[in-house]
Write a structure and sequence with these properties.
about 525 residues, seven-stranded parallel beta sheet, five-stranded parallel beta sheet, alpha/beta, 3 domains, about 15% strand, Rossmann fold
Length: about 525
């Protein structure tokens, strides 16, 4: 059973939850923003003193396994009389809060009534009034006003709550138990970020071992994220989270002509999110719905709701493909497995040295004297500089020139498999000089793909035994190019371990095997 947590609100959460509820062996928790103060939600909040119900209602409806008529009833919006503009579901949730004396309890009761497949958790139980501070020091109060304010470019300084809005205990527990956390999609500053800036949210995310998945929005919001690209969403989300995301879902198909015309009429150009992000964490799939959405005229906020959305089925199929790799974990060596062309790297190293006045023969003769697992590039360069009578200040320059090209020597096919497996399922164990190996791994840009990275001086036995012990319910595959590291493993302690001697000849077979496991 995999624990999936979604973070957001509004139509974005509805879309993703509507599809996720159909996955097998999955426990779902939807964390929902409590900052909304507009429309029916805002009126009930002001008049009755209840917490905002609109986003929670949409999540409940999305996860409901009840009849169509009951789901329609929850979404029904009155179009006349004193209840005009109000959603029946919002009124029900407001009444349940009054009856139970607690909004969270009221949501739990509503979940039972609607036969919800999963759990809907308000991110906070506190009254949450969102603020935006602009660079001009002007303070914008409330979601409705923020929605209508220009936050573009250098205008926005920060999004925050004035009062101490604390993370709900149930929300914290869900984050800590999660295997996957999905951030968004949705209205970025009014549905997604209001969750992240709740006090305690970042701390919980940092303690969680979950993989963070970012489904990038299909469209930008005028005066909020207009002209944003995929890289902007990644950069800003990671800034708010205070840590990198693990997987980035990017749509590859365009909207229909009708969708483009209608959306541009509403918000102008610069709306479609452009894919500019060349990163091994990106998963590119067709994710767009080509349905044309119509809204109830009684909905006073229909003008701010997106006409271009993710397709629930496409999005969830993509996520299902990611999480289906949960039965195996990979342990991988670095040199000649991930960093699969050390011969070319050495050739590049010699060329850089020659460029700086150190001949190939001199460099190679000294290299042969150094045992491979004790090789330190910095010491190597330092020795050559001294022996050849070069200036000492050249050392840093030569080192940077050599390490700059590390990304060119990666096994891209294997990295694609690792990325699909997910960070929580992949370990990197390598041996040799700690500083040199650390530099290569860092400059290769692969660190963020692994749950843990260990650099050992000699044997890998103890680290592998520990991983096998901590993951008894998983089949573990260890890819290694040197037989000596396979022979010293105690298989009595590692009965769930399969070792594979990795080389260029069996490369394709191994990739196929992992992909079909």
């Amino acid at each position: 059973m995999k624990n999936i947590v979604t973070v957001g609100g509004g139509t974005g959460s509805y879309t993703i939850l509507f599809g996720l509820k159909n996955l097998e062996d999955v426990s779902l928790t939807a964390l929902v923003s409590m900052a909304d103060n507009g429309g029916s939600t805002g009126i009930l909040r002001d008049e009755l003193g209840v917490l905002p119900a609109g986003d929670v209602r949409q999540c409940l409806v999305a996860l409901s396994d009840h009849t169509d008529i009951v789901r329609k009833l929850m979404s029904y919006r009155f179009s006349e009389g004193t209840l005009s503009g109000h959603s029946f579901g919002n009124i029900l949730l407001a009444a349940l809060e009054k009856v139970t004396g607690d909004f969270v309890t009221g949501v739990e009761v509503a979940s039972e009534i609607l036969k919800v497949k999963g759990t809907v958790v308000p991110v906070t139980s506190n009254k949450a009034e969102l603020y935006a501070l602009l660079k001009s020091k002007f303070l914008v109060k409330g979601i409705v006003s923020i929605n209508q304010t220009n936050l573009q470019g250098i205008n926005l300084k920060k999004i925050f709550y004035k009062k101490n809005v604390k993370l709900n205990k149930n929300a914290k527990n869900a984050i800590l138990k999660a295997d996957y956390i999905l951030i968004g999609p949705g209205n970025y500053y009014c549905s997604v970020i209001p969750n992240i800036v709740v006090n305690g949210f970042k701390e919980a995310i940092h303690k969680s071992k979950a993989q963070i998945i970012l489904p990038v929005n299909l469209t930008n919001k005028q005066e909020h994220t207009k002209n944003w690209k995929v890289s902007d969403y990644v950069k800003n989300t990671e800034m708010y989270l205070g840590k990198p995301v693990d997987i980035i879902l990017v749509n590859t198909e365009p909207p229909s002509k009708k969708q483009i015309e209608h959306y541009k009429l509403k918000e102008g150009g610069g709306i479609l999110v452009k894919d500019d992000f060349n990163d091994i964490r990106v998963v590119r799939k067709p994710l767009m719905s080509h349905s044309f959405f119509k809204y109830n005229k009684a909905d006073a906020r229909q003008h701010i709701r997106s006409f271009i959305r993710h397709d629930s089925v496409k999005l969830v199929n993509c996520i299902a493909h990611i999480i289906k790799k949960n039965k195996i974990k990979l342990i991988l060596d670095f040199d000649d497995v991930i960093f699969n062309n050390t011969k070319q790297f050495k050739k590049h190293m010699y060329l850089c040295l020659e460029k700086n006045g150190i001949t190939h023969s001199v460099a190679e003769n000294y290299y042969k004297k150094v045992r491979e697992n004790e090789f330190s590039l910095k010491n190597f360069i330092s020795y050559l500089i001294v022996s050849e009578g070069l200036r000492k200040n050249q050392q840093k320059k030569i080192h940077e020139e050599i390490m700059h090209k590390c990304k060119n020597f990666l096994n891209m096919e294997l990295l694609e498999v690792i990325r699909k497996m997910g960070k929580s399922n992949c370990y990197l164990i390598t041996n040799g000089d700690k500083e040199f190996q650390k530099d290569k791994i860092k400059n290769s840009g692969v660190s963020k793909l692994f749950f843990d990275i260990k650099i050992v001086p000699r044997s890998k036995k103890e680290v592998i035994e520990k991983i096998c012990k901590e993951n008894k319910d998983y089949d573990i595959i260890f890819l290694e190019d040197k037989e000596k590291f396979l022979n010293d493993i105690n298989f009595r302690k590692c009965q769930n371990l399969t070792t594979v001697l990795y080389n260029e000849q069996n490369h394709k077979d191994i990739l196929k095997r992992i992909n079909t496991s």
